[in-house]
Write a structure and sequence with these properties.
The protein is α/β, with parallel strands linked by helices and 290 residues long. It is built from 14 helices and 5 strands.
Length: 290
């Protein structure tokens, strides 16, 4: 762990003092992690880096879930990494999974003041000009030619995974995505693509929207219908209504299919471009979970 004075380990014995009471003065971000967790190894250094940049505007509490199983159980931690933000003694927001640095900065900026000055990255000097729309098949063929010419360029393989997903080749897209090297595993495009794939795959052979609404009207506890309707709405033109469906399941049947509604929300957060909407529903999810 970083030697930064703003990063510290916390246990069940010290949680009351160092998190709940301390957050009355300074926001405390809790990182639930484990040494065997690959995504934790990607997220942890980013959180520690930001804690250093914020220079005391928030403190980062590290909870090793293996050494503090009872504490993790109190928070209902089912997957790691999971992050929760405490302000004035209460959890106000949180997320699960290894977010890319840009989204971590957005998350912190909503709650922590003063935020650091974030300079927008310079546009690459050789950024390609916008291209005309090409078919999915043409895109796949073009990227494969580029890979043949530059086989060591792993970013092209990420482009190929995205093109395959857009072509409806979900299994091939996931296979390509899973074969990417570790340094691209937490790339923002990789994280977004995994969310898109998870949602798109769920609709393979699913009933249409009208049929799903009829099922819910007949049985409000038809969780499968609510789940599929939520996916259709998120990928369609009504993402907020889709998120409501997932949140309804999470509230009333939290453990349905091993917490699928929670994962649906996390996947949806990756694909929805409305940052304000995502922020709102992250807080709602956190209030249910914590």
């Amino acid at each position: 762990m970083s030697p930064s004075p703003h990063v510290f380990d916390v246990t069940q014995d010290t949680f009351e003092t160092e998190v709940i009471q301390a957050s009355m003065q300074t926001p405390v971000l809790i990182d639930f992690w484990a040494s065997w967790c690959g995504p934790c190894k990607a997220l942890g250094p980013l959180l520690e880096k930001l804690a250093g940049e914020y220079n005391g505007a928030f403190r980062l509490a590290k909870v090793d879930v293996d050494a503090n199983q009872e504490l993790a159980g109190m928070f209902g931690i089912r997957s790691i990494p999971t992050v929760a933000l405490f302000v004035e003694g209460k959890p106000v927001d949180g997320f699960a999974g290894a977010l890319p640095e840009g989204q971590l900065r957005e998350f912190l900026a909503k709650h922590v003041e003063p935020a650091p000055l974030i300079e927008a990255p310079d546009e690459p000097a050789d950024a390609p000009e916008p291209q005309t729309v090409e078919s999915a098949a043409d895109a796949i063929a073009r990227i494969r030619r580029q890979i043949d010419a530059r086989p060591d360029d792993e970013h092209l393989k990420l482009d190929l995974a995205l093109a395959r997903m857009r072509a409806g080749e979900y299994a091939a897209a996931r296979e390509t995505l899973d074969a990417l090297p570790a340094n691209l595993a937490t790339d923002e495009r990789s994280v977004r693509l995994r969310g898109q794939l998870a949602l798109a795959e769920a609709l393979d052979g699913a009933p249409d929207e009208a049929s799903l609404r009829q099922r819910i009207e007949a049985d409000s506890a038809d969780w499968e219908a609510r789940d599929l309707l939520g996916v259709r709405l998120v990928l369609g033109e009504h993402p907020a209504e889709g998120l409501d469906q997932f949140l309804h399941i999470l509230t009333h049947q939290r453990d349905w299919q091993d917490g699928k509604a929670r994962q649906r929300l996390l996947d949806a957060f990756q694909v929805i471009d409305d940052a304000r909407l995502v922020s709102d529903y992250r807080r709602r999810m956190a209030s249910v979970l914590f």
